[in-house]
Amino acid sequence: MKRIDSARMKRNNTRLVFDLIREGESVSRKDLAEKTGLTSPSITNIANELIEQNYIVESGHEESNGGRKAALLSLNPNAGNIIGVSLTATAIYIVITDFKARLLDEMHIDMGDAPAQDAVIEKIVSSIKSIMDGQGVAKEQIHGIGLVTPGPIDVENGLIINPPNLTGWHDVPLKAIVGEQIGIPVEFEKETAASALCENWFGKAKASKVLVACGVYHTGIGASVVIDGKVFHGYGNSAGEIGHMVVDINGRQCACGNYGCLETVADGRSLLRRVKSKLKTDDAIRRECGIADVDALTLREILDRAESGEEAFRVELLTCARYVAIALSNLIVSVGPDTIVLTGDIPDYSPTFVDSVRQYIHGRPYPGHSQDIDIYSPALKRNTEAMGGVALVYRRIFKG
Length: 400
Prior knowledge:
Layout: H1 6-23, E1 27-28, H2 29-36, H3 40-52, E2 56-61, E3 71-75, E4 81-87, E5 91-97, E6 103-110, H4 117-135, E7 142-149, E8 153-154, E9 159-160, H5 174-182, E10 186-190, H6 191-202, E11 210-216, E12 221-227, E13 230-232, H7 263-266, H8 268-281, H9 283-289, H10 299-307, H11 311-335, E14 339-343, H12 345-349, H13 351-362, E15 374-376, H14 384-397
Parallel strand pairs: 4-7, 7-10, 11-14, 14-15
Antiparallel strand pairs: 1-3, 2-3, 4-5, 5-6, 8-9, 11-12, 12-13
Helix pairs in contact: 1-3, 2-3, 4-5, 6-14, 8-9, 8-11, 10-11, 11-13
C-alpha cells in the first residue's frame, strides 16, 4: 500500500485554501470547507496557521441570519511586498506589489539593441533598489524577487545559458548575482513561462489545464507550456523554444545558426525589415504613406499604422501572424492546449495580430476542438511577465 505523504498533503491543502482566499475578496471558514471538501477542523487549523504567519486576516463578518456572524478571511495586503523583474532582449520591466498582488509601482527601462551584459545586470540591481526606495520598503519586507529572462535557461541552477538574442550571455548565474547583490531570495524562470503563470494565478486562465504562452517580441519569439499549474521545462530546459521551429526550409539564417526559424519571418525585426524593404523599393507606396525617412520607422509606428488600416503595413503584419499561427498549430496537435496567451511587443499593441492568429487557428478543420481554444492577449500587457515573477514568489511561499 502506497504511503501517504502527510507533509505534502498539508502543503497541497494549504495552497488550496490560500488560492480560494486569494481569488475572492473575502470568504468564511464554512465556505472554504464546502469548496475544498476539507473538514471544519482542518480549515480552522490551516486558517489559524496562515493568520499566525500574517498572510491572511479576519476582514469582517458575514450578514447574520439570526445566528452568530461568521468571520470573513482575506489576504493581508500589509503582509509584505513582492518584486517581479522581466528582462527582454531590449528592455527591463520591474513591478512591486503588496501581498494581494496589487500593483504599487512599475518601471520600464529601455536598454536598446544588444546591451552590454555588465550594464544590464547593474541596471537590474539599481532599478530594484530604486523601486524599493520609492515605496519606502526595506528588504526585510520583501518576500522575494521573481526574475524572468529569455530562454534557454537552466532553471535549477539559475543560469542564462546562451540566448540567441542576448549576445555574449553564456552560462550567466543571474539568479545568484541578483540575490547576492540585493540580499533577497530570488526565483528564476523563462519569460514566457512567467507569462503563463501570471495568467494562471492572476488572469483569465485560472481554470486552464494546459496553457501555452507565446511571446512575440521586437527581438525573438518564445513559448512555454504550463500543465495543471506547473511549467513543463522538457529535457535540458528546452521546451517551448518555438522561435526556432523551422517554418521556411529555404529561409534566411537565424541568430541561433539554423535556417528558416520562426523568428526570421515573424518577430518585430522581420516585420521592420519587410516593411522597410517594401517602402524602399516602391516609391509610390512610400509617397502614399507620407514617409520621408524609411530607416527612422519604429516597430510601434508600423503597428499603429497597420491598426489604422494602412494596407502596406497591415499586409506585412498579417504575414507575421500567419507564421505564428502555423507554429502554434503544430503545438496544438502535440500538447493539446485549452488556452493560448499571446504576449510581447507585437500582441500587446496589435489587436489585428491577435485576431488574425485566433481566426487562423479557429478555422482549421483538425483537430476538431481548435475553435474551442481560448486565444487572447492578457490585460496586463507588458507587465504580464514581471507579474509572472510575482506568481513565482507566491508559488515558492506556498510550495505550489
